[in-house]
Write the structure tokens for this entry.
Amino acid sequence: MKDRVAIVTGAASGIGLEVAKRLASVGAEVYLLDRDARQVSLHAQMLVEQGFSAIGIECDITDESSLERVFQEIVVDTGRIDILINNAGRQFVAAIDQFPSHEFESMIKLMLVAPFFAIKHVFPVMKQRGYGRIVNMASVNGVIGFAGKAAYNSAKHGVIGLTKVAALEGAAYGITVNAVCPGYVDTPLLRNQLADLGRAHKVAVDRVLEDILLPLIPQRRLLDVSEVADYTLYLLGEQAKGITGQSVIIDGGYTVQ
Ligand SMILES: NC(=O)c1ccc[n+]([C@@H]2O[C@H](COP(=O)([O-])OP(=O)(O)OC[C@H]3O[C@@H](n4cnc5c(N)ncnc54)[C@H](O)[C@@H]3O)[C@@H](O)[C@H]2O)c1
């Protein structure tokens, strides 16, 4: 990854932050994008203090013009974008008949439309240079359904479709595009949904993990962000240049049963 220019969205927390740290630690010049200005600059600063190359940028990735402007500035500064990790996401749990329509639209915009914006605006640069690595952070909820997660499931199924199309269109230009599909990973996104899941399943919030989620997972544990980052880094390396258009699952056996 030495001197590769990488963009990670949703890099102020959880999986995105871990992927950004890992990329920086193997020599990439990492741009951490997040709508949380304070956290993203704090984490970028910490990476710089460790001797790595990292820049934190406040960006709401659902705003296409902001995203395009940030990408243009990066290209002006570096002449390239080699790696794009479409990672930003959030969760909202409710039955379809009670699901606020504006929440549905907003989640589709964040986890399907915004990755489309990002790929659309990074493709010309990658095609011109004949190299690119794109990873879309999908989910096992892009492969199977989960009651209460209409928007999340729809967005994640959609981004897997987007991954396949982008892989086909990028194949002749040295660009690979893959989706990583984690099961349950211990991050703020997961912890924040426990109350909603408790309400939906009529279980006390402090029992949701033990009674609802862990029984679904054969390994009976949450994944660590480092496991998802390892898998993502593998897909970005030279050894994975033949892997494209795939949705690779890391879920402790969740989807096997
Ligand atoms: N945690 C899990 O169990 C799990 C499982 C499967 C997939 N995922 C996916 O992994 C990705 C990262 O999730 P996480 O668990 O690390 O979540 P997280 O909540 O820890 O981090 C998400 C980050 O996205 C940022 N973000 C949200 N909206 C944004 C916007 N409009 N513009 C820019 N940044 C924005 C947040 O500020 C936050 O820093 C998501 O796409 C999520 O769907 C998570």
Q: What stands out?
A: Residues 9-10, 12-16, 34-36, 59-62, 87-90, 110-111, 137, 139, 182, 184-185, 187-190 surround nicotinamide-adenine-dinucleotide (CB under 6 Å). The beta strands are 5-9, 29-34, 53-58, 83-86, 132-137, 175-182, 247-250. The chain has a mean pLDDT of 96. The longest strand covers residues 175-182.
